[in-house]
Amino acid sequence: MNNHSNISNSVNNTTTSTSPQDLGLHFLEMARLGLPRGLCDMDEDEDSPTELNTINSSGGFLLVTPDKLSVKYTNVNLHGHDVGVVQANKPAPVKRLVYYFEIHVKDAGAKGQIAIGFTTESFKMRRQPGWEPNSCGYHGDDGLLYRGLGKKEPFGPTYTSGDTVGAGINYASQEFFFTKNGIVVGAVEKDMKGPLFPTIAVHSQNEEVQVNFGQKSFAFDLKLFEAQERMKQQTTIEKLSLPSNVSYRIVRSYLQHYGYEDTLSAFDMACKSTVPPIYIAQENGFDEQDIMYALNQRKTLRQLIRKGEIDAALGKLSEWYPQIVQDEKSATCFLLHCQKFIELVRAGALEEAVKYGRNQLGKFYGLPGFQDLVQDSVALLAYEQPQESPVGYLLEDTQREIVADTVNAMVLSTNPNVKNLQGCLHPYLERLLRQLTACCLVRRSLNGDQGEAFQLHRVLNSIKKSKC
Amino acid sequence: MSLFWIVIRQFAENEAMATSKKVITREEWEKKLNDVKIRKEDMNKLVMNFLVTEGYVDAAEKFRMESGAEPEIDLATITDRMAVKKAVQCGNVEDAIEKVNDLNPEILDTNPQLFFHLQQQRLIELIRNGKVEEALEFAQEELAPRGEENQSFLEELERTVALLAFEDVSNCPVRDLLDISQRLKTASEVNAAILTSQSHEKDPKLPSLLKMLMWAQDQLDEKAAYPRINDLSTAMLEDPPV
């Protein structure tokens, strides 16, 4: 990973005991998430099979080509213990919805005794997948599915020269499935545990098979299959019913939390005028008061920061909430000064920026948790076109938003009625999304890490079909 | 006596079975929650998606200014869509049909069911307003030919015309057709069709995510005891039953 995460770990290790200082540190962390690499797919780091394992294969009976993606049976088969079988170099990854690979039968050889399937690490490398316990295989010569000693069942069509056959693991339904020429042949319960290796076998003279671990496009439309699988789950979920107007309440509390006052009043107005009107006044009046706390001041501060008028925001803060800017070395002050510096760079006032940096940012240099942001900010000076530079993220709108969110949280924390400072950090919406993510992650880890994690990002981009 | 102990032991074993679920304390759970990073940008998108899909154009506009979130669709199209929806909600079905056709004539051409429901709503409004003759004429000329094409249309038409058979409709078996909910149903059908024609999802994402949360908690319940959120509108963590 990058050096940022090390620092952030040391900063963000307190969970339950939160002090107002910690609130600022939380946003320091958020500022780092602004980095494009800050938050990406955590599932992508899992290794996938890339080629065939030539060390562990049944050498002598088969020949693996130098690119390690094709096999050929070079012997004459005499019995059931001279199968040419080879596993992938890595087990199938599990932290996803589906794993899938394909073979193309170049030559069905003398008897077409080709098989595709999955085996565990301890598999006997002289036998067909499916002939032994803890293995399964779809065989070309008879179209049967073999699952362990003496267990076979009618499954699909036979396959031969020119056919493309695929094998997959559906972690959501806990099934193996197989395809022939891009069409699903069938699925069976996945009754094997532990790392499973994609496995192929050839067992008669001149049989030749090419394997595709995703380097080339599949004959099977995997993306569509995944979308359909997700849709199945979604259909179950959509049947649940929600308490009335709960979405409205959550949106409303989000707007209140972040001080989006104008949006809030437009939203309230619109809710009243719909047919029938939507009443979302909170039953618990106390809560309402707390969340409306200093709404107008929070809105003003946010507007100033979003416009880049940091001095004005600092001025208002020391007038309204001097306690927030009292500690010059707090994360809040740091983020504000940092932003002021960034705004100077944006305006092209570089000399002034240098001066400001020396006065205000210098003292944070060397402090753990601050150093990387100071460095990145100062680095802006080094580029003729800072927007295009690796630290260009600092000039984006989201950076201003983070500073505005910091100030917003600090103002919320001055409310004498606040019982739990965590509440100043996270609107209801965020707490719900965290709970959702945590539930999915924990469930997956209790399920042998199998399956796909929930990612808000993916849900949001599902229309555009783009990936993180 | 020995039986007593067997029962007790059995009871204890059952208890152990029941509690063999993994227990996650509040402290452990909060740590897990803290490790989850949700991007502000993404939450803004979610809120914007809600405002846009539900048709709160003014709020969406303000939200764009206050948060910088970009709407996924031209806000002007929301105004048109909401005008159609409102027209149906107020019973001005003719007006609504005209507006939909102004927006995109393909919408009604390609949705015979939607078109039928709009016409049916028009008939309902005529009956509501006591225009019996006009209603009959409209039913015969516009709706009956469609009923011939489609059995389910025919049944709905018959049900609607049945309104004319009662002196006191407030007490008749098909009175639900005169209910406001019937208008809302038709209005939301039009709304969905317009959104689909704009290649936009017809439902906002937020309610689906909330349902997903309820589902995910239920799923995890089978494997673990952990702090749950039972009241979505307060997002309050509640300790697992001990």
What does it look like?
The complex is a heterodimer of chains A (468) and B (242). Helices cover 39% and strands 15% of the residues of chain A. Chain A has 16 helices and 13 strands. Chain A has helices spanning 3-11, 20-33, 222-238, 246-257, 261-273, 285-291, 295-306, 310-320, 322-325, 331-347, 350-361, 371-379, 397-413, 422-425, 428-445, 456-460; strands at 62-64, 70-73, 84-87, 98-107, 115-120, 135-139, 144-146, 152-154, 164-170, 175-180, 183-189, 196-202, 208-212. A 7-stranded antiparallel sheet of chain A has the order 1-2-13-4-9-10-11, with no helix packed on it. In chain A, strands 3-12-5-6-7-8 form a 6-stranded antiparallel sheet, with no helix packed on it. In chain A, strand 6 and strand 7 form a beta hairpin. In chain A, helix 2 runs antiparallel to helix 13, helix 7 packs antiparallel against helix 13 and helix 10 (331-347) packs antiparallel against helix 11. Chain A starts with a helix and ends in an 8-residue tail after the last helix. In chain B, strand 3 (228-229) and strand 4 (237-238) form a beta hairpin. Chain B has helices spanning 2-18, 26-35, 40-54, 57-67, 75-89, 93-103, 106-109, 112-128, 132-149, 151-161, 180-197, 205-221, and strands at 22-23, 224-225, 228-229, 237-238. Among the domains of chain B are: 73-197, no CATH class; 205-242, no CATH class. The relative contact order of chain B is 0.11. The model of chain B has no long low-confidence stretch (mean pLDDT 88). The chains are: A alpha+beta (468), B mainly alpha (242). At the A-B interface, helix 3, helix 4, helix 5, helix 7 and helix 13 of A face helix 2, helix 3, helix 4, helix 11 and helix 12 of B.
